[in-house]
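# nightly structure sweep
# worker-07 picked up a monomer target from the shared queue
# config: single-sequence mode, recycle default, output format = structure tokens
# input follows
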Amino acid sequence: MTLNMEESVDMFGDINLTLGMLNKEDDINKEDIYGHLTSVIQNADILDDAIVQRLIYYASKDMRDDNIPREIRMLAGELLVSLAAHDFNSVMYEVQSNFRILELPDEFIVLALAELATSYVSQSIPFMMMTLLTMQTMLRLAEDERMKDTFCIALEKFSKAIYKYVNHWRDFPYPRLDANRLSDKVFMLFQYIMEKWVPGAPRTRTLAIVKAHGPTVSLLLLREDFCEYALGQVPWLLNQYKDKEIDFHITQSLKQILTAAVLYDIGLPRGLRKSIFINLLHQICSVPEPPVKENEIEASNCFLILAHSNPADLMEFFDDQVRSNNEAIRVGILTLLRSVISAEEPKLRDYITSIERTVKVVMGDLSIKEKPVKTNFSENEKGEKSVQETSLEVLKTLDPLVIGMPQVLWPRILTFVVPAEYTGTLEHLFNIIRILIMAEERKKHNAKDSTALVISTGAVKLPSPQQLLARLLVISILASLGKLCGAGAIGLLKILPEIIHPKLVDLWKTRLPDLLQPLEGKNSSIVLWETMLLQLLKESLWKISDTAWTIQLSRDFSHQMGSYSNTSTEKKFLWKALGTTLASCQDKDFVSLRIKEFLIAPNQLGDQRQGIFSGKKSLTKTDVMVIYGAVALHAPKMQLLTRLNQDIVSQVLFLYGQCTQVLGMSVVNKDMDLQMSFTRSITEIGIAVQDAEDHQFQFVYKEMLIGYMLDFIRNEPLDSLASPIRWKALIAIRYLSKMKPQLPLNDHLNILEENIRRLLPLPPLENLSNDGQTDKDKEHIKFLYERSMDALAKLLKSMMWDNMDAEDCLEMFNLLRMWLVSQKEWERERAFQITAKVLTNDVEAPENFKIGSLLGLLAPHSCDTLPTIRQAAACSIIGLFCIKGITLEMERLQSLQEGLESDDVEVQIKISSKIAKILSKFIPSEEIQVFLEETLDGLETLNPTCTKACGIWMISVLKEQGAALEDQLLEILSTIYHHMPVLRQKEESFQFILEAISQIASFHMDAVVVNLLRKALPFDRDTKTLWKALAENSASSGKLTRSLIDKLETGLEDDIAGIDAISVACAMYEVISTGTPLSGMYPELFTVLLKLVSCTLGQKMPTVSLSHRRHVMQQGERQQIPDPCRLSTATLKCLQAQAMKEGLAKESDEGENLWTLLSNPATHHIGVCVLARSMAVWQHGIILDIMEYLFSSLTSSSENYRITGTAFFSELMKEPILWKHGNLRDVLTLMDQSAWDSNAILRQMAIRGLGNTASGAPHKVKKHKQIMLESIIRGLYHLARTEVVCESLKALKKILELLTERDVSFYFKEIVLQTRTFFEDEQDDVRLTAIFLFENLASLTGRRWKIFFAEEIKKSMISFLLHLWDPNPKIGAACRDVLMVCIPFLGLQELYGVLDHLLDQDLPRVRDFYRQFCVKLAKKNQEILWILHTHSFTFFTSSWEMIRSAAVKLTDAIVLNLTSQYVELLDKEQLTTRLQELRQDPCISVQRAAEAALQTLLRRCKEISIPS
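# output follows
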């Protein structure tokens, strides 16, 4: 992986450096630069987006630059098209932006579009309509010949792309487009070109039109409305047959048209057909000069198409033409007939008679004579060659089934099989033998009288079965070299088992078809083919199990060796076949004797390379190595082990070392034969040791030999697979790894990792196969690929399960992890196929082997992109459970596994889900956590379909086993939280996370809630999301809310709010905000949240540890400092909003201000009252529940909570329905007690509650009037807090309205005196309430207090008169009303008229009112006027300008209306001084009033001659 990354970095650096040269280099160097860039890009898997955009820019710019040579512009265009593989849309956008309507584009822009259309059909089709429309507007603008040629090329490419789409639209990844619209545009373009550009077209344009003609007409044939026009253009195409350079392209276009006609089942008009026949025949039988080979082939292909579509017409044409005297035409007709017959066209079977007649015409023409051929050979050579050729010709033409011929040929023909001199005829001999035997087989099935072919010697000495087998096997090896006789030999073996040996019939019936597969139309690797033949021989000898028969076969192999040269393939194979035969022989003495003969007389081996025995040039070191391996394999096992290390392995190593030395120095020898022989020898030694089953044997060379094998594997290239070294070395390592001594785990890991890294990164099999030159090479590569992967799987499986430590097994398997999740499909495919083999087929794993992690890793890939991966993943999953010994519904699971072959993603998901449901219950509960960890990793990294499968498996497991996860719950939740910040970026994955949490919570709600509540405050976005997800789960939302309520109540048991309670509030906010129905929990929820708000008033957030989880901060996001009360209030606000939606509460009269009031310690009690008023009284059941929960607040140890409860109840006290159904009597008692509390706010709320009782329960007021009056009156003395005074005044007003004069007589005087003290209070509410109360007191005076009250009225009248002009108009109105009530006590009813003016719409002026009032009062009672005067001085310093002004104006009116007697009593000096001071008042109104009053005083004093 690191290597690939380094290569990518180097590549990007190379491209960047090359790009930098584009601006600097001249045109000559640009050609090399573009060529280099194109090569790099075409071979790069991934390119950086920025680099791609830069390349697009430079390539487009240079491609359109007219000042640059055409060659460079073409290279730039090629680069631009290559870039489409990395970013098609950007390339298409760049090209289309320079391809505009009614503007003639650059020539290379059109060519680039055309190339994009053919190279990227799928991506180009959606742009095709726009492209064709634009091109339609350009044709009329094209005047340059080159531009016209370019448009013709574009039409050709576009037509090909559309034709491909029309016929394969199901393979395209988007909904079907309207192909008719595309063909409409193509028709218009083609029609214009044929009408406007064809006449007088130069040769180059004619060629371009010819090339476009075939694809375009083929496309138009699809449309019935265009079909006639399209066929009408074919004669023009035929008329262009005149130039050899164009002829091939004409034939090619004609072939495309004929193919389309067959595809769309369109019949060609007879005249057109004949014209096509004649022109095509001319291309094959051109007399003046021989036809071009490519054109001749294409024309022959056209005739094959015509033979399929119009066989009758074609045969008639052939019959007519063959009667021509033109020899070339006759030869051409016969050649075509041979091609047509060879093609085995079914429709020609009905015209066999016509074909025979045509051939007989030629054969019956005696004028055709053979011409003599002059040669330079000698007569003998000529005669011999003639005999050979004649014999071969006879064999070729011989019909072995002619009457009497089988009896002549059989069995004599078998005598020609074994002798070497008849090798050249074997191909035809084998064919005749095959025909004879197969014909006899047919007779056996179809007739009773069979002329069965039997081996009857008679006068002919026939070859023995052993001779036949030996000869046929040797010849079969040539099949790997592509020789037909080799294929014939193996084909003959297939039908000769009864002749060779009866016991071979069943074996060969099953094995030979498999053996033939690599040869079907292709060549095979000679090594592979040789191995397969030897394996067949080995199995056949085992099946025969006849020692004498085997001994004879070995002798026949030896006898045939003299027929071949020492270096021939046949000779080498004979030695290996002989070795295999001896290995299968049960006669040990015979085998030992034969081996001894070979060692004593090594020249028998016949190889003319350097030998090692007796100085003779015979047996090679490589051969001896192989012999040592074979000796070890077949030696007696108990005797072998004692001599293995010293006498066999050491010698093999010595021989190998000798082969790798040059001039005494060891070098790397890459001779494949040497490596293969060495590897084979070591493998056979390993097999021998394993067969010995001696567990005490210590193989001292184990590590050394494994090292050799790993070196072989390392030296193999990573970009190709041409040799079997990897495969064979892996097999050797597998056997070596099983030997003692046992290697440590790290060595096993290194061995496996090295092998995995040398196999899994290979290019895709398709790319590997492309390295083969022939089909045989490709089959060989495929075979090596499959065997190598299988060997790697077996090695991993062997090493894993031979280890009894479960952790070690898992660690070895983990070497595949990175490949199982590779971004490259082919790497994943290999890894999964290996995994499936490792985890299946009778695996014995350690008892404590854990499958959870592997299951989480593998399961999501049951929905991977390739069916092979999906199948392997499902197979592996099932294998995991079988490893644990779990009994499964195998038939059902295998049926589901087969369904994963479907390419429908929805089907894959459904099947994976079903498998998950079946298997989830079998996962050990203690492994659920690691399973979930794996699936969570998959949700982060896998492709979308696998991600979905991850989620489905995770949810299925949690549903099935969620109840058993209690002990692992904390770790599971921690793991899930850890992944959330990353998964939030993947919407679908994140939804699975939320569903998983909800699923866990459905089993363990309290545990999940406790875990979530431990998150740091304020909750981050992920935690909030989790709370909401839990709430939105209808199945568990009720349990969630209940749990949170319980947690909050527990946290507030001591009426103190800690961090836990605040966390619960934050959680409740998220839960309630989802709109979860509150149902019956609203009263309890409301009460506990109100309590929390109360307990957090003025509180700072407790210190908590910071969260250690990953957090993805959004841009601009800042860490907020939380306010506990604000958080609690927000939750309560959210609750009330939901309650209003459900009709459980109503809108507050304070609106949003309610929550500000509630969270502020100074206004909390006001907010609680507002909140209480927002309760839906008609839901009295809910209110009663709230009252019951909240009752304890009245006696709480927390002063804040007592205030909250008292304030809330104070508002409820005025609701009669609650008095009727609720227990407010106890509340009333507690209220009375709280009215004496030292806390002013608590007293205020308690007094308010007492006062509101008058509205809710008047009878309670009368019953408890004494204690209530005492408590309330006491509040009037709380002068430090006007709120308490005001509340007391209001309460008194409400209560006094219910009482009689007798009820209040005892308290009347005190109430009156205390009420008067608040007429001048700065608080409007206090003044107003005091005035209202005083007015009410007038009705309660009775006889006892009438005089007293009149005196108090006199003292209070100045306040009433002045406050008529109070800044608060409500107070002015109240003063008017109280004056109206109080005047009768003074006997001043005459003043009513003056006071009535205050009711007028236009109020009188202050001065005028006071003068009128004083005039009336002076006439009635000068004493009261004087009292008013004496009390007015105090108001000169009032803080209100209007009161000061009114006081001065009243003084003016009083002075004006006092009698002379009272004027003399005036303290004129003091009054003057005060008025003088008021002349300096900041208020102009006061200044003027003071000036007028001073003038009045001076005038009155002057009138009575009193010095001023």
